[in-house]
Structures are given as C-alpha cells and as structure tokens.
Amino acid sequence: MRRFLVAIDGPAGAGKSTVARKVADCLGITYVDTGAMYRAIAWKALNSGIDIMKEEEVAQLAESLDISLHPEGICINDHLLKNEIRTPEITSLASVVAKMPKVRRVLVNKQQQIAEHQSVVMDGRDIGTNVLPCADVKIFLTASIEERALRRYKEMKAKGMAVELEQLKAELQKRDENDCTREIAPLKQAEDAVLIDSTHHSVTEIVEKILHLCRNKLGDKE
Ligand code: CDP
Ligand code: CDP
C-alpha cells in the first residue's frame, strides 16, 4: 500500500480516539493521538516546575522532548504516559498549552514528521485543516453535547472517579469554545472533510463507515 493518510477531527467526546485506533488497526497502519502530545507537554511542564503560562519556556520544553509512539500510549524520553495525562487537571492545562502558537509549531512539526514516511490515522482538532491538509480521507466527527458529556461521564464512573454530569457538560462546552475560538488552528471542519454525527451510532457503525470511505479511496489510488 502506498502512503495513506487519514485525518479525524472533532470536539471532545465525539469518539475520535476510539474510532481512529480501530480504523488504524483494521488498515494495519499507525495511529497517532495528537491530543496526547498536548497533554504530555502539559504534564511534563507541570512536573518540571516550568511556569505553564510562559510560552517560550513551554515551547523550549516541547522542542527538547523526544516524543515516540507506543501501542499503549505516548512516550516522552522513553517514559510511557498513560492515565497520568488523563486527569482533569492535565485536561485543562492541555487546553492552555494548545493555545500557544510556539508550542503548536513544535508539535505540528513533529506530527508531520511522523506522517512523512508512513501511513497513519491521526486524530485531533486541526489535522485535516493544518497538519495533514493533503490527507486522503478527512473526517469531521461530532455528537451532541449531551451525548458527549454522557460518554465521558460513563467512562469516568467506570474508572471509579467521582464526577457530576452537569459539571462535565459545562467543562466540555468551555473546552469546545476554547478550541473553536482560539486564533491559531481553531477546531473547524475542513472543506473537503466528511461530516459524521455519531450521536445515535455505535463505534462499530462509525468505524465501518470510515473504512468504507478509506477502501473507496484506496481503490482510486491503485
Ligand atoms: O480526549 P479529548 O478530546 O478530551 O482531548 P484530547 O484530544 O486528548 O486533546 C486535549 C487538548 O489538546 C484539547 O482540549 C485541545 O485543546 C488540544 N488539541 C489541540 O489543540 N489540537 C490537536 N490537534 C489535538 C488536541
Ligand atoms: O477522542 P474523543 O474525545 O473524541 O472521544 P473518545 O475518547 O474516543 O470517546 C469517548 C467515549 O465515547 C468512549 O468511551 C467511547 O467508547 C464512547 N463512544 C461511544 O459510546 N459511541 C461512539 N459512537 C463513539 C465513542
């Protein structure tokens, strides 16, 4: 197979990472979770005593880190990061560092390098619009705010975390607003992206739909 690029963007809780991972598995190609990269920078800054509000310092940190992909998550300097980057604190700090143009420049560069010589399914907020504008298949995955909040609620409850549905919904709305209104690389649907609303559809249905689009495109490429 020639290099094949799939971009999946959308708001938090739409199902991007769950679906992207399965699509990548089915196609036998690499999955890249770009949200985990923003989370990893926020986590490392917090644990290195770096002032998270100082863009220059956070960008230098991002530049200095060796970021690699691992089947179970993301590694920075060979340290595998898992649940520690999924806490509410890191979720909120990731959204702060993601607004910084210098940090984005460093991470977008690293994301483009990963996709330079291999096929990938990459998910995030600006993949179809900015990171991989020439992707073969672009998906904009959404779901209603109620459904997205409920999914996150169930996920956190299952992990034994104490959460309130209404508070989760308010936090998701705030993060959506941050992502959609920031000056650099805001979350928006690329003109050539296929819009998929997952509100009333299972993970399997969404994966099948995306695989169908990929197979059509792969057929065209051959
Ligand atoms: O899992 P969830 O959708 O809640 O978040 P994530 O995909 O792990 O991303 C964490 C944060 O990184 C988001 O709130 C976005 O602000 C930011 N992000 C971004 O700005 N651009 C990307 N390509 C990926 C994530
Ligand atoms: O990456 P993103 O924030 O867009 O969402 P996710 O972390 O992949 O999905 C959030 C939760 O919704 C997960 O527990 C998924 O299993 C679930 N989900 C679902 O119930 N139905 C879908 N069609 C997609 C995701």
Automatic annotation (TrEMBL):
Source domain of life: Bacteria
Pfam families, A to Z: Cytidylate_kin (PF02224)
Protein name: Cytidylate kinase
Family of this protein: Belongs to the cytidylate kinase family. Type 1 subfamily.
Family annotation (Gene3D superfamilies): P-loop containing nucleotide triphosphate hydrolases (3.40.50.300)
HAMAP family for this protein: Cytidyl_kinase_type1
Reactions it catalyzes: dCMP + ATP = dCDP + ADP; CMP + ATP = CDP + ADP
Binding site for ATP: G10, P11, A12, G13, A14, G15, K16, S17, T18
